[in-house]
Amino acid sequence: MQVLLKPSATQWQSLKPHAKYSQEYSKNKERGGACCLFLFILKLKRWGHLMATLKLASWNINGIRAIHKKGFSQWLEEEQPDVLGLQEIKIMANQLTPEIIKPPGYHTFFCHAERKGYSGTAIYTKNLPISIQRGFGHERFDQEGRTIIADFGDFIFLNSYYPNGKMNEERLQYKLDFYDHFLVYVKGLVKQGKKLIICGDFNTAHKEIDLSHPKRNENVSGFLPQERAWMDRFVAGGFVDSFRQFNNSPEQYTWWHMVTNARSRNVGWRIDYFFHSENMQSMIKDATIKQEVMGSDHCPITLSLSI
Asked: Is 201 noted as a catalytic residue in this protein?
């Protein structure tokens, strides 16, 4: 049983400098402080310190069983992200093995597509979230296992594998519809005062700097005007491209075509992103692309933030 104690005046003063990290501080002070103190205790338990620097990572692994044969466990042990979003896991629940489910030091959560060997997302986290949500409330999109969401209290972590529109016009429209419904959903969360970290394979290069041959690909899904226009609306809706805050250099790609051996020539696309809601701006500290990490046709990306 958790016992909540009313803090003394001295304890209140020690907690006050950290008040900006909890919206509940002002609400609960007049209630005697127990609830507020409890929130800080939860934060201390969740992240190990009232003020912590967290490393988040995102990676389209192109098959979780395949990546485990290519050094994924070693990479995870060395990189040590506090929270990791994986896309395109391509596995069903009954195919999960102990090695996949229980990597040392991590809790794991999976969102599977109904179709076998297709799509799917996962979250690996060192600390248990308050809640896990699979999908964002639209059966048409949720059946493909493309979105998994973890609420950590200080922020909500949304990990998505956005559809690819290259197959045909129907799939392109599906992608654009997914984009539109997702944007409505996340803007709704921000209106509720939530702080969001959104990561994943967006399957679109936003600007010309984000791919090797922009003119050649103007009529290819992934760089179509309507796809890029949605990315513009996404940014205008209050979401910041975290990486471009720190690095405006060209040739910063996250995906390369495997068949043409494009990676060895760094002929690629930046289609994997971290975005953060504008109300998290002061918490964002760094963002990187790990082009040296092999194992998939995508490479991992990272985001560092303080809470």
From this structure: yes
3 belongs to a structural domain: no
- Whether this prediction's pTM lies above 0.70 is answered by yes
- Do the domain assignments include residue 4? no
Domain count along the chain: 2
Per residue in 189-205, is it b (16+ CB within 10 Å) or e — as a string? bbeeebbbbbbbbbbbb
User: Distance of alpha carbon 294 from its chain centroid, rounded?
Assistant: 20
Quick one: 39 and 131 in the same domain?
A: no
> What's the pLDDT tens digit per position in 49-80?
566 899 999 999 999 999 999 999 999 999 99
Q: List the one residue out of 262, 255, 187 whose CA is nearest residue 223.
A: 255
- Give yes or no: residues 41 and 167 share one domain: no
Question: Which one of the listed residues 82, 154, 201, 272 is annotated catalytic?
Answer: 201
Question: 135 and 141 in contact (C-beta within 8 Å)?
Answer: yes
The span from the CA of 72 to the CA of 293, in Å, is 10
Domain range for 36 is 9-47
Other Cβ atoms closer than 10 A to 241: 18
Express each pLDDT in 76-120 by its tens digit: 999 999 999 999 999 999 999 999 999 999 999 999 999 999 999
Q: Which segments of the chain are extended strands (E)?
A: 53-60, 83-87, 107-111, 121-125, 131-134, 147-151, 156-161, 196-201, 239-241, 255-256, 268-269, 272-277, 284-289, 301-306
Domain membership of residue 291 (yes or no) is: yes
Q: What pLDDT shows up at residue 16?
A: 46
Q: How far is CA 256 from CA 24, 209, 252, in A?
A: 45, 15, 11
Tokens of 100: 């996949």
2 in any annotated domain: no
